[in-house]
Every structure is written in structure tokens, then in C-alpha cells.
């Protein structure tokens, strides 16, 4: 089966084509760099950009892969969580295609798509798995008993890790989205120059909190002695605090719940320091570790298509009933 995946939950417009036999055929993303000048995603602008981007991306994807629309066997679309206006554009497009092509359509939970992006290289998720989902909107630990069975073991109480990267990057005058810029600048800095706080590190607590770190960085930047030469050390120290909290929580959660297989997912999973540190910690603890290929970490249509294949296989078709939702954890369906 060839499955088209559609992703418009935030500011990336992305489509992917997935073949249930051979895996990802292609995926194509338009990043909305227009939000740069506002320092964050403007929902109304994001929706309008999705309207502009979707059809050209769809046509290019089909042309690049030599696919006739009639060869698409099913469609998956992220229908939440995310920006409602953005989601509605993707879902509207998906419904029109499904009705026009007379093919089934399934809504895909955006976080489930991130979790299952670990399977896009062709190796099924080992279970039980602990997946750290870290993105601009989410920071959570899920136990995955099998595909379709998810238990939320930890969640952020305030900001998501990606949001923290972005806000700190903005404070330091770096580019947007901040994560990759902060990582790049951090390579030149000393990660131990400033001891920023790690919140909620008590035993047996697997929730996260990043708003205190954001405030600590702001107070540091606004302090009288701060000058621009300290930006790299501040960036590296902030990244260190985020990565340290993520790795320590993940490992203690895996140990506490006796889960031997650790996975990373979401946009922040593209961070090289986080990938290396989690890999090292898992190796030391005798746990297996896997992170998606970089191209499948930030929002992409391929992960939506891959996750949709699991739902389509159950015979589901949401063509006429699909709605969107702004927030909520992944719930079990299998
Ligand atoms: O998964 P994603 O594309 O969108 C959401 O579902 O939120 O994640 C986007 C987030 C942004 O906050 C971005 O700054 C962050 O992922 N990100 C990174 C890196 N690349 C993307 N954060 C840290 N280091 C990176 N290399
Ligand atoms: Zn995402």
C-alpha cells in the first residue's frame, strides 16, 4: 500500500509518501521562515502559509516519485495536538483528497507519529519501550507496550524543552527556530560556565519543568556584568541544563519501571548533544537506545504516513467524521 501523510500541526507544511513494503518513498517540507521576524509562530500566518504550500508540495511529491494520484491507497493526517487553524488546513486538504480519490483517511495523533518515526528505517520498535518525546510543544515520557498501547509516565508541568531552547535562543539574540542555532553556538562555549538549575530532580518524579531555567537565563542575561562575549558560554550552559535534566529523568524512569529499550523522538531529538548523551547513558545502564534519522526528528509527513499505515491496517476510515484537537496525550487504541 502507498500512503500519503500530511503534517500541518504547527509551522511546517510537510507531506510524505510511505510504502508498506519498502518504507519511505519521499517526503517534502516547506519551513515557514516568515515567523523569524516575529520571534515565534504566529498562528494566523501559519494557517495561511499552509494553504499556499500544500498543493505545490503535493504536486512536487507526486512528480518526484513518479506517482499517479490513483496509486495512493490511503491518507493519514495529523489532526492534533497543535494549532487548531493549522490543523484544520491539513485536515480539510486531506478530506478533499480522500473524497476525490475515494480512498480511506485516518487522523493521526502527532505524538504517536513522532514515537513511530523510530520505525521509519524498517526496524520495529522493541518493547516494552520508553520513548522520550521532546519537541516544541511536548516533553513527555511514554511507555510503549506495543504499537497502539501508550502509557504517559512523565510530562512537562510548564514549557516544553524545544520551547525552552527557542525562548533562550531569542533571549540571546540567536535565530529562529532557536534549537538548531543554540546548538550551533553552544559548540563554541563552555557547558559548565554557568550552573543553571535543573528542576524537579527528586527521586521517583518523572515530570519535567523548564520555566525556571528560562527565567534563570533571563536574569543572567539581564545582570549588570553580562556582555555579548558570554553568549556562547550561556548558550552551552543552558543546553547542558536541558540535556542533563532530560537524560537523567529518562534513565531514572527506565530503571524505575524496568524498561530496557529507550527511544528518542521529536524535533529536539535532532540535538547532537542530547543524542550522544542519551546513547552513552543507555549503554552504561545496559539499555538499548535508538533515535530517528535527523530528517525524521522535526515535523515531517513521512512519520504521519508511517503511523497512518498502522491505523489503516485496522480498516479505519475517518473520511467524513475527522475533527481536530488542540491538546492531549496519546491514548491507547490497540
Ligand atoms: O517536533 P517539532 O518539529 O515540532 C513540534 O512538534 O513542536 O519540534 C520543533 C522544536 C523546536 O522547538 C526546535 O527549536 C527544536 O525542535 N529543535 C531543536 C533542534 N532542532 C530542532 N532543539 C535543539 N537542538 C536542535 N538541533
Ligand atoms: Zn512535532
What would you note in describing this structure?
- The protein has 334 residues and is of the alpha/beta class.
- It contains 9 helices and 10 strands.
- It has helices spanning 43-65, 84-101, 110-116, 161-171, 178-186, 211-222, 231-256, 272-284, 301-312; strands at residues 2-7, 12-19, 23-31, 74-80, 105-109, 129-134, 139-146, 149-155, 261-265, 288-290.
- A hairpin with a 4-residue loop joins strand 6 and strand 7.
- It starts with a strand and ends in a 22-residue tail after the last helix.
- The structure holds 5'-O-[(R)-(carboxyoxy)(hydroxy)phosphoryl]adenosine (KG4) and zinc ion (ZN).
- Residues 110, 114, 135, 266-267, 299 line the site of zinc ion (ZN).
Distance between the termini: 21 Å
Listed once per kind, the bound small molecules are: 5'-O-[(R)-(carboxyoxy)(hydroxy)phosphoryl]adenosine, zinc ion
Overall, the morphology is globular
Number of helices: 9
Number of strands: 10
Q: SSE order in H/E notation? A: EEEHEHEHEEEHHHHEHEH
CATH topology of the largest domain: Nucleotidyltransferase, domain 5
Which architecture name of the largest domain does CATH use? 2-Layer Sandwich
The Rg value, from CA coordinates, equals: 20 Å
The number of domains is: 2
Mean pLDDT: 96
CATH class of the largest domain: Alpha Beta
Layout of helices and strands:
Elements: E1 2-7, E2 12-19, E3 23-31, H1 43-65, E4 74-80, H2 84-101, E5 105-109, H3 110-116, E6 129-134, E7 139-146, E8 149-155, H4 161-171, H5 178-186, H6 211-222, H7 231-256, E9 261-265, H8 272-284, E10 288-290, H9 301-312
Parallel strand pairs: 1-4, 4-5, 6-9, 9-10
Antiparallel strand pairs: 1-2, 2-3, 6-7, 7-8
Helix pairs in contact: 1-2, 3-9, 4-5, 4-6, 4-7, 5-7, 6-7, 7-8
The structure holds 5'-O-[(R)-(carboxyoxy)(hydroxy)phosphoryl]adenosine and zinc ion.
Zinc ion is lined by residues 110, 114, 135, 266-267, 299.
Amino acid at each position: 500500500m502507498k500512503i500519503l501523510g500530511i503534517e500541518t500541526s504547527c509551522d511546517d507544511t510537510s507531506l510524505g509518501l510511505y510504502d508498506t513494503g519498502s518504507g519511505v518513498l519521499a517526503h517534502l517540507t516547506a519551513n515557514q521562515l516568515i515567523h523569524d521576524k516575529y520571534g515565534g509562530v504566529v498562528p494566523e500566518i501559519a494557517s495561511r502559509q499552509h494553504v499556499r504550500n500544500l498543493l505545490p508540495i503535493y504536486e512536487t511529491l507526486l512528480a518526484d516519485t513518479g506517482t499517479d494520484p490513483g496509486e495512493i491507497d490511503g491518507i493519514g493526517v495529523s489532526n492534533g495536538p497543535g494549532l487548531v487553524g493549522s490543523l484544520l488546513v491539513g485536515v480539510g486538504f486531506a478530506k478533499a483528497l480522500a473524497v476525490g480519490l475515494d480512498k480511506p483517511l485516518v487522523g493521526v495523533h502527532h505524538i504517536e507519529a513522532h514515537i513511530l518515526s523510530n520505525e521509519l528505517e524498517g526496524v520495529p520498535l522493541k518493547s516494552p519501550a520508553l520513548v522520550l518525546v521532546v519537541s516544541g510543544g511536548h516533553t513527555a515520557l511514554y511507555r510503549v507496550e506495543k504499537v497502539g498501547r501508550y502509557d504517559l509516565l512523565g510530562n512537562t508541568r510548564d514549557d516544553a524543552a524545544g520551547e525552552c531552547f527557542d525562548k533562550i535562543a531569542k533571549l540571546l539574540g540567536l535565530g529562529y527556530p532557536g534549537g538548531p542555532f543554540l546548538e550551533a553556538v553552544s559548540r563554541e562555549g563552555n557547558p559548565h560556565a554557568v550552573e543553571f538549575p535543573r528542576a524537579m530532580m527528586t527521586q521517583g518524579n518523572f515530570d519535567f519543568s523548564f520555566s525556571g531555567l528560562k527565567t534563570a537565563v533571563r536574569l543572567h542575561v539581564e545582570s549588570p556584568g553580562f556582555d555579548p562575549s558570554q553568549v556562547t558560554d550561556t548558550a552551552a550552559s543552558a543546553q547542558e541544563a536541558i540535556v542533563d535534566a532530560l537524560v537523567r529523568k529518562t534513565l531514572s524512569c527506565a530503571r524505575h519501571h524496568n524498561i530496557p529499550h529507550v527511544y528518542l523522538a521529536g524535533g529536539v531529538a535532532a540535538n547532537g548533544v542530547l543524542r550522544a548523551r542519551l546513547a552513552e547513558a543507555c549503554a552504561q545502564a545496559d539499555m538499548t537506545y535508538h533515535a530517528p534519522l535527523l530528517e525524521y526528528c522535526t515535523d515531517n509527513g513521512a512519520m504521519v504516513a508511517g503511523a497512518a499505515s498502522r491505523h489503516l491496517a485496522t480498516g479505519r476510515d475517518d473520511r467524513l467524521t475527522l475533527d481536530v484537537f488542540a491538546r492531549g496525550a496519546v491514548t491507547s487504541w490497540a
